[in-house]
Specification:
Chain B: This is small monomeric GTPase. Chain B: Its EC number is 3.6.5.2. The complex is a heterodimer. Chain A is built from 36 helices and 17 strands. By secondary structure, chain A is α+β, with helices and mostly antiparallel strands. Chain A has a 13-stranded mixed beta sheet with strand order 1-2-3-4-5-6-17-16-15-7-8-9-14, with helices on both faces. A two-stranded antiparallel sheet of chain A has the order 10-11. In chain A, strands 12-13 form a two-stranded antiparallel ribbon. In chain A, helix 25 packs across helix 28 and helix 30 packs antiparallel against helix 31. The radius of gyration of chain A is 44 Å and the shape is elongated. The two termini of chain A are 39 Å apart. Chain B has a single domain, classed as Rossmann fold (3-Layer(aba) Sandwich), CATH 3.40.50. In chain B, strands 2-3-1-4-5-6 form a six-stranded mixed beta sheet, sandwiched between helices. The chains are: A alpha+beta, B alpha/beta.
């Protein structure tokens, strides 16, 4: 810049002296032109040097580049505004390192450009100008050269997944400017308006020396019509466009299009003087529209079926209700909307191909350049798991209680209920009670067969008169309860279904799967536990039956628990660890790594177990008592009032001998370890409460003492038991068992009176701290009376605890029920997601999401961040999208009909995965198929499409038998292995695939290098792009003329 | 006064009975040594505010009973602990040998996965040492713990033990939560947690 500074000042002086530039009367139009020029200068597109910018990037093409654009607003006469957008292709940055290098290069380049431009401006001599013009003559602008460049033909999508702008697609341009009306503005609808803008462009181009084509968008925006201009090297290219909603019949094939092209080039040309090269792309629609895939159809059917009155077959009882065992997964619609196959023939000579309505040389089977386009509806589809989770989360806000919603224990409903409740109820009633007759029939079947455990349900329901008003009909409810508590009833169908399930399990039992699941802390991630099953059912009921259904199942569930507690029947399915399950003898304390609800139910199980034990002991002692009574009728009260009396038995409640140790005061007696009370099992909330009590005492010495007192209950119990088991024992004996390190050796020196030698004798005594008078241990010991465990106060009051749990369960509102069950539901959801991903071998794509999901879920469930559950659903949705898309793609490309051989399989799998990955990145993905028709994938597609052609015809044309034969022959000629069975099978094939004998879309690019406008003009690039499909007809032409020799 | 406290940490002291857990705690909190201290029943609890590198940290230290029978009770209080001090008595090999059990207990019941563990060799003032420093070091290295020798009686090593432990906890992302902002540290430390769910 420093170079041209003096020149500038010189210029300025000149102006001052000689003339005054008066712009006060400049028109709107002139101002508009200035705006364009300013922007061109600002973006450094203002001379042929700008063309060099791209020189280093000559090798950038649509495939390896990335589209960028910048936009500025232009103002025309105050009220009309336009945007000027600069589109340009840049090198795709592979990684940050490259990025850095590139930016450095750019800087270097910029400096050189500055230098160049300054020299350019400063050299005004005639000679230089001539040289320049010579250069210009030799080198047409790159944009014009691009018109003839074939590498960018039909490249819709660049490798970095940016979509090619349509202008670039039509003309093969790498850089261009577009002036478009802003949206709220009226568009350029008349030719004169367009011409005003075009002439502005022309002026701007000439003033700035811009070599980049500038377009102006005309007509309504959605028609995508542009006129444009490019000048340089004394050549001028006009970009013109034709757009119709229909295809004029005379121009619908190659000969007609060639005719137009030739007529545009000029009449002075004879056919032999130039050659037109033709590139063609035909696009075939190989699948149209949306449909449900067969599996999902079944799902939907089964859902519908369950609410219809059906004749039931005994062994198919499972099938009439929706699947209550698994979370439903996947999209409801097919998420692949349509599939297109495009075949490209490039660089053909116009005179060697025949393309007409009746016959075309362009047979897809002869093209080596295929690509497939998949339009997906991923964002529009509804996903079952995702939507059910959302719906379940919606219930969080309901503060209504269970009994408010469906009445206490299902008894008659109060008519004065609030309207929200009524509304909810009505909705759910309509949905769920329509199948009462089917249910009644079911009932009969359910109650045939032996009852192992009588169910609480049936007892409660017998009393219930208003059963019909509940959202879930009785049959379905029983079906669910039987599933949740399989020990309550054994049914044959259950067993068969179990077998099926096991089979699936076995399939999944591969090491990899197990490894992953164990990573997930296996215990929490499973669909098998009682609560998992229960929550899956709740979620299902909520999906199909509204809120009241949750309330009803919840109530039923509590009733069942209550019944089990009262009858002392262990609740099944709470511990997944089989080792633990076998240890029936001891209590399993609640697993604190599980959610609160799970802990509570486990706690209830502890209560039930304790109750069982107690009842067993009571029975035994009653028996004993009976025996005693028979022996000695007078001793009735001995077991109950013994504290005040001298025990008849010298010891009670011994567990085992404590080694060989004997009592200090009575060396003839061994020390016995007493039977002790087990510590109180605690749930998370109890523990917190307990801890906070201890914490709230503060940290003073007194507080410590108080804490010790509070916690001394178990010490007291143990001391009492010890005393009962070891009559005549002392604290020292107890300490030897309980805290052996407080029984310390003291060495004493003694002088042997006979030998006068010093001897060290070891004596044992209580440790110093145990001997401190008034210490806690001594106090408790002194207060302890010999009482065996079974007559002690229970440390763990199972009755009280159980009641507390029931109270808690009953107090939950719908929202709270949802809140409490969310952790379980999400763990099940993750399990389901993982199972689905694993089945389809999609770990390479889904694992990062699943890992993230797990990490977040663990955090959210641990911290009880209820509001954040919504975030998790997004991850579930991503996984559901991947899986649904994969399923859909698999159904299309890897079905039985494709008959993929083992050789082909790896390649097909790879292709399918690539297709999936591309589809996930964007709504409409285009993927090249290697070797076109002759590659593995091409052959596969040919097989699939030929079949579909037949299917289509057989389905819609209702073929005559002879037609059938001819078609059959055609199949045989293509694929000899087809036999009759398969053809019949195909007729039933439901995929709505269309034949590909007629292209859905045809595109042609015609190109030539021709002398225009006069025969002695230099040769210049000419191009016309043509698009023909049943919606539109478009011609986009670029015609260049020599402006020097005409 | 509570306002400038960075966070509250829960720390456990565990180990065989009579190794000096309560004495260590008393020395740390009150700078006292009380030979009259009686055997802990269940759990006890003390609070102290510590200043580590300018960060005020409130420590809630849970002292546990070492007796076998209390082990059904005390592990319930392990939940939520960010740090654990395992104590043994250098004059008793038995207390050293039982450390494995205590580690197991900790694995089973402490629910924070990266809880910081420190091994303290207590009673180094005693003449009849049975466990050498090297053995203690070796054990700590094997189980990736901090290690220090200390004496609650002479005060040696006690304060520094707690300070080191707290410092280590504060350096471990995701283990503690900043009370003043309510933000979890994990979010800021690992960027991919915040990232949108990308497919690849």
């Amino acid at each position: 810049m420093s170079v041209n500074k003096p020149l500038e000042t010189e210029d300025a002086e000149d102006h001052e002296i000689f003339d005054i530039n008066d712009f006060t009367t400049a028109s709107d139009w002139e101002r508009f032109v200035v705006q364009i020029e300013e922007l061109i200068n600002e973006w450094k597109l203002n001379s042929n040097i700008s063309d060099n910018l791209i020189d280093g990037d000559r090798d950038i093409n649509f495939e390896n580049g990335e589209w960028q654009h910048k936009t500025e607003t232009l103002q025309f006469a105050e009220e009309i505004s336009f945007t000027l957008t600069y589109y340009y292709l840049t090198k795709k940055n592979e990684n940050d390192k490259n990025n850095l290098n590139n930016s450095k290069k750019d800087q270097v380049k910029n400096i050189s450009i500055d230098f160049d431009s300054s020299t350019n401006q400063s050299n005004n001599s005639q000679l230089e100008a001539d040289e320049n013009s010579v250069n210009l003559v030799n080198l047409p602008p790159k944009s014009m050269a691009d018109l003839l460049n074939k590498t960018n033909d039909f490249q819709n999508v660049t490798s970095s997944q940016t979509i090619t702008p349509s202008i670039a697609y039509w003309y093969g341009l790498c850089r261009f400017l577009v002036i478009s009306p802003t949206r709220n503005n009226s568009f350029i609808d008349t030719e004169s308006r367009a011409n005003v803008i075009l002439s502005s462009i022309s002026i701007a181009i000439n003033n700035t020396g811009c070599l980049i084509p500038i377009f102006v968008q005309v007509n309504s925006i959605n028609r995508d019509m542009y006129l444009g201009l490019c000048e340089g090297s004394a050549l001028k290219t006009h970009f013109q466009i034709v757009h119709f909603n229909y295809t004029p019949p005379q121009y619908s094939f190659l000969p007609g299009l060639l005719e137009i092209f030739k007529s545009k080039l000029g009449n002075h040309l004879t056919n032999s003087s130039f050659l037109i090269s033709v590139s063609v792309r035909f696009t075939y629609l190989i699948q149209e529209g949306t449909f449900l895939d067969s599996q999902q159809m079944n799902m939907k059917a089964s859902l519908d079926k369950s609410f219809q009155d059906l004749d039931l077959v005994d062994d198919r009882i499972d099938e009439i209700y929706p699947d209550i065992k698994n979370l439903s997964f996947g999209s409801i619609q097919d998420c692949v909307d349509s599939i297109y196959l495009s075949c490209i023939w490039s660089n053909l000579s116009e005179d060697i191909i025949v393309d007409s309505e009746s016959y075309s040389d362009l047979n897809p089977q002869h093209s080596n350049d295929w690509c497939i386009t998949l339009n997906n509806l991923l964002d529009k589809c509804e996903y079952q798991l995702t939507s059910s989770l959302y719906k379940y989360l919606d219930e969080l806000k309901r503060t209504i209680s269970v009994s408010q919603l469906i009445g206490p224990t299902g008894l008659s409903i109060n008519s004065n209920m609030d309207p929200q409740v009524e509304e909810l109820k009505n909705k759910s009633l309509q949905k769920l009670t329509s199948s009462s007759s089917a249910a009644r029939r079911l009932d009969k079947m359910y109650f045939v067969g032996s009852n192992i455990v009588e169910k609480a349900t049936s007892r409660m329901k017998a009393l219930n008169t208003s059963e019909n008003q509940l959202p879930i009909d009785k049959g379905f409810l029983d079906f669910i309860m039987d599933y949740l508590f399989p020990d309550a009833k054994l049914r044959q169908s259950k067993e068969t279904s179990k077998q099926n399930k096991n089979q699936i399990k076995d399939d999944l039992n591969s090491e990899k799967f197990l490894k992953k699941i164990s990573l997930l802390k296996s215990s929490s991630f499973s669909n098998d536990g009682l609560l998992n099953k229960f929550v899956i059912c709740l979620n299902l009921l909520n999906r199909i039956g509204q809120t009241a259904a949750i309330a009803q199942l919840w109530q039923e569930f509590i009733l069942e628990l209550r019944y089990r507690y009262e009858s002392a029947i262990i609740i099944p399915g709470l511990d997944n660890d089989p080792k633990k399950q076998n240890q029936d003898s001891s209590l399993i304390p609640p697993d604190l790594s599980r959610c609160l609800l799970h802990q509570k139910i486990q706690m209830l199980n502890c209560c039930i177990k304790k109750k069982q034990e107690r009842e067993l002991i009571e029975k035994e002692s009653a028996k004993k008592l009976d025996n005693e009574k028979q022996k000695n009728n007078s001793d009735e009260d001995e077991f109950f009032d013994c504290e005040d009396e001298q025990p008849i038995l010298p010891f009670e409640g011994r567990l085992k001998k404590f080694g060989d140790l004997t009592l200090l005061n009575k060396p003839s007696e061994y020390i016995y370890v007493p039977i002790t009370q087990e510590s109180t099992p605690m749930t998370e909330d109890m523990l917190e409460q307990h801890a906070s009590v201890l914490v709230n005492l503060g940290s003073s010495d007194d507080a410590s003492l108080l804490r010790a007192k509070i916690q001394s209950a178990s010490l007291l119990s143990d001391m009492q038991a010890f005393k009962a088991a070891n009559p005549e024992c002392v604290l020292e004996d107890f300490v030897r068992w309980y805290s052996p390190r407080d029984w310390v050796a003291v060495e004493e020196k003694q002088i042997d009176p006979e030998t006068n030698e010093e001897k060290i004798i070891k004596k044992y005594e209580l440790s110093h701290r145990m001997k401190i008078p008034g210490n806690m241990w001594v106090d408790v010991w002194n207060n302890a009376k010999p009482v065996p465990v079974r007559r002690q106060k229970r440390l763990f009051d199972d009755t009280k605890e159980a009641e507390k749990i029931f109270e808690w369960l009953n107090s939950l509102s719908i929202g709270q029920i949802v809140e409490q069950t969310l952790p379980i539901l999400f763990y099940s959801a993750i399990y389901t997601c993982y199972e689905e991903v694993f089945k389809l071998d999609l770990n390479f794509l889904a694992d990062p999401i699943i890992d993230l999901l797990i990490e977040k879920t663990i955090k959210i469930t641990r911290n009880n961040e209820t509001k954040k559950y919504h975030d998790l659903v997004n991850y579930v949705k991503s996984i559901e999208q991947i899986v649904s898309l994969m399923k859909s793609i698999n159904a299309k490309f890897m079905n039985k009909k494709a008959r993929i051989s083992s050789d082909e399989e790896p390649e097909v799998k790879q292709f399918v995965k690539k297709l999936l990955k591309h589809s996930l990145d964007q709504e409409s993905c285009e993927l090249k198929i290697e070797n076109g028709a002759h590659g593995t994938i091409g052959k596969l597609l040919s097989r699939l499409c030929v079949r579909n052609k037949i299917t289509h015809k057989s389905k819609y044309n209702r073929m005559q038998s002879n037609e059938y034969k001819s078609i059959k022959n055609s199949i045989d000629s293509i694929d000899d292995q087809d036999d009759n069975d398969e053809i019949e099978e195909m007729e039933n094939y439901t995929n709505l695939l269309l034949p590909y004998d007629k292209p859905f879309k045809r595109e042609y690019i015609l190109r030539s290098s021709v002398s225009r406008p006069a025969p002695y003009s230099r040769q210049s690039p000419q191009r016309m792009y043509c698009l023909i499909n049943n919606l539109e007809f478009r011609l986009a032409g670029a015609f260049t003329e020599d402006t020097m020799f005409f | 006064m509570d306002d400038d406290i960075l966070t509250t940490l829960k720390i456990l002291i565990i180990g065989e009975s009579g190794v000096g857990k309560s004495s260590l705690l008393l020395r740390f909190t009150d700078d006292l040594f009380d030979p009259q201290l009686s055997a802990t029943i269940g759990v006890d609890f003390k609070v102290k505010t510590l200043n580590v590198e300018g960060n005020k940290t409130k420590l809630a230290i849970w002292d546990t009973a070492g007796q076998e029978r209390f082990r059904t009770l005390t592990p319930s209080y392990y939940r939520g602990a960010q740090g654990a001090i395992l104590v043994y008595d250098v004059s008793s090999r038995e207390t050293f040998a039982k450390l494995d059990n205590w580690l197991n207990e900790l694995e089973t019941f402490a629910n924070k996965p990266d809880i910081v563990k420190m091994l303290v060799a207590n009673k180094i003032d005693k003449p009849n040492r049975e466990v050498t420093k090297e053995e203690g070091l070796k054990f700590a290295r094997k189980h990736s713990m901090l290690f220090i020798e200390a004496s609650a009686k002479t005060k040696e090593g006690v304060e520094i033990a707690f300070e080191e432990l707290v410092e280590k906890i504060l350096q471990t992302p995701g283990l503690w939560e900043n009370r003043s902002t309510g933000l979890n540290v994990t979010n800021t430390s690992s960027p991919n947690q915040n990232g949108n769910c990308g497919y690849c």
